[in-house]
Write a structure and sequence with these properties.
Chains A, B, C, D: Residues 7-197 form the Class II aldolase/adducin N-terminal domain. The structure is a homotetramer. By secondary structure, chain A is of the alpha+beta class. Chain A is 41% helix and 15% strand. In chain A, strands 4-3-2-1-5-8-7-6 form an 8-stranded mixed sheet, with helices on both faces. In chain A, helix 2 (76-85) packs parallel to helix 5 and helix 3 packs across helix 6.
């Protein structure tokens, strides 16, 4: 069942240690088959060096396990909400990557200080509030997803142009058109988080990049007039 | 004698360079056989790339060498005290891992700024005071252990929920149910120390994570209601 | 066509990941044949682990593609201007290397704090202003090159003695007598940027190195009286 | 001539890239045969990955080349002075290792903040002043050595208990009983420099470790009462 997707999601999971985004089992990647309404996710707490494609767990959009011998990631309920609320995404990643997590622990969104950020993420990367005690007690992982999706709705943020979020005192989630692109965005986020911190230390009065420069770089890579790479070839 | 334990402790020692926790010989791991009342520890000053399982030294709970050609770790007396005072631990680690040691040198405990910390360590990681000149002169390594254990007793800290401590101007000790888990906690400590420093630099007014979030993450992984990983499968 | 140069430029591009200067495809190297008036550059958006010498694109000094199946780097127009305005250079590099980019994002030139810097780069590494909205809209990459070259002309900077520049909120460009030396200078810049940031954090009142020390180190390696290395042997 | 020493010095040089202390050719190691009054040093500007034992250059204590096809390190005159003024040392190292160089660029000595430092280096690591223009013009590398040795004499520092120094706006020199120990001390210095910077950032009011703790750790490893390692076995 979903063998090809399992393989893709397995490979995307294995990119997390490759890119230095996880210590031990502190991360998970999922990918969805939109036609079938099923997604595939890493099992909970399994070390990356013993993980196999067939260990992946299949979940439906109500959060019910459809196939798999193991428990799915403890963050599965967050993934469920994100797939339901963000209909155009195909993959979700959660990590505790050190620089992005440091910003999350600091409770700050990441301003757009340069073109590396603007190439992939349009505007300031948001940091959502802590959940209340009631939300935590009732359904921690589910409310994490709801909080993210509600924040994007309330702030009128386009989740396709901003495929990343920080959860206060916790860490980042990223997404993308598939599991591989979601991991790509997790790598970008970590690089951007590192450089944003350092540039503030180099210049404590630092200001975000001018809007026209952000626009130039974002639209050089995205949308109808993009000309970066080999698109249209 | 204790061949299986020697092998385990040897392997746990070899994880220190693998995880980047030691330079040269600046670290040691021990593991105990509680039934026999004997523990096995790295020999002093031996380089990791020539270390062998049979080099491990066997020590009893009075600190007497029971078997081994080499001198045990110079920190052996600290391990002796910790095994005597913390009856449920099975392994002890000492390193000079750079981020944890930087906090120890700064004389500060590490506040719980996020879920990475709360997943493993319940509350602020304590930093114990300097030993007095009298304690140093009389029995430095032994009093290091006594200071740690007394601090946990006086502060009413649960050593199973807080398997790590910093010694001021020195470095960290961690422990766990066996040598391997003690190393695992040393890795967690180093990651947590790194991110705590950086998040303070990103937000100098930073506050610890809300207690309910710390509780949620700690008890998601520990105790009767834990649901992280494949426990109960 | 230009097979030997393509090979050199390919190899110079492959040094970027080797030295940790690029994540994904965030960098490009070119090299020129001055006699023919043609340069060779990396194709746009192609991953380094699939890049081949024959993928290199040949461009003339008007910016026209002369040979190649792929789109050239999106920064090609900047390279064109630099080759036209800096007649003695043979190679150009652009990266988003993290420390140099952090200074660029901070909008600050890098003061010469020591001999590592003075060995290769004479004086403060300049940081040029943001382009205006008009310049961005009209020809972003071309005006990036013009801005750099005009800045060097206006400030009376010798581009051979200062083979590096930072573009505000963007990142660095470096150059050299060939593609390989341009990459060498990109590595130097990254090391220098890292140490300059850290030494300011260690001493917030830090001052540049004395001029006579800068002169000594620069001229120990450059010009008629150089005695570093095996020159003249 | 001195084949065994050349091999040792070659191997010690190759440890510099292994331990991440050098970029390109920014470092050199020498070792001396005290009976013959000759030392062996890396040739100037030769890349580590093509360096061979037979490339080493033999120099006498007047600084004259006795054997070798290549130019010796441009820092040879500094090594000459150190061997003459510090009669018990057998090896000398110069690098631009990033953390030690950051302190040198900041013009600050490194306070002893912990036992990692005290285990090897007794007291604050000194940072010597800039050379004057006259000293630079007359004999830069020779006066670098004189300045170091004079500083140790004037401050009554024991060069055997403090085998490291920083040269302002330049970088570190270390030494030891042979070339290998000098490299060992260069690694220690880099670790200590890194942790000293970070602990000041974690606690800006940080104070050095108590003298009795420094003494305990230094004399646990050095002198008649040392008990670290397998000495006396």
């Amino acid at each position: 069942m979903l063998e090809e997707l399992k393989k893709q999601v397995y490979e995307a999971n294995m990119l997390l240690p490759k890119y230095g985004l996880v210590t031990f089992t502190w991360g998970n990647v999922s990918g969805i088959d939109r036609e079938k309404g099923l997604f595939v996710i890493k099992p909970s707490g399994v070390e990356y060096d013993v993980l196999k494609p067939e260990d992946m767990v299949v979940i439906d959009l109500d959060g019910k396990k459809v196939e798999g011998d193991m428990n799915p990631s403890s963050d599965t309920a967050t993934h469920v909400v994100l797939y339901n609320r963000f209909p155009n995404i195909g993959g979700v990643v959660h990590t505790h990557s050190p620089w992005a997590t440091s910003w999350a622990q600091a409770g700050r969104g990441i301003p757009c200080y340069g073109t590396t950020h603007a190439d992939y993420l349009y505007g300031e990367i948001p940091c959502v509030r802590n959940l209340t005690k009631e939300e935590i007690d009732e359904a921690y992982e589910k409310y994490t997803g709801i909080l993210i999706a509600d924040h994007f709705a309330q702030q009128n943020l386009d989740y396709e142009a901003m495929p990343a979020v920080l959860c206060k005192n916790h860490g980042p989630f990223t997404w993308g058109k598939d599991a591989h692109e979601a991991v790509h965005n997790a790598v970008v986020l970590e690089e951007v988080a590192k450089m944003a911190a350092r540039c503030e230390w180099i210049n404590p009065q630092n200001q975000p990049a001018p809007q026209e420069l952000q626009d130039k770089h974002y639209y050089r890579k995205h949308g109808a007039n993009a000309y970066y790479g080999q698109k249209g070839k």
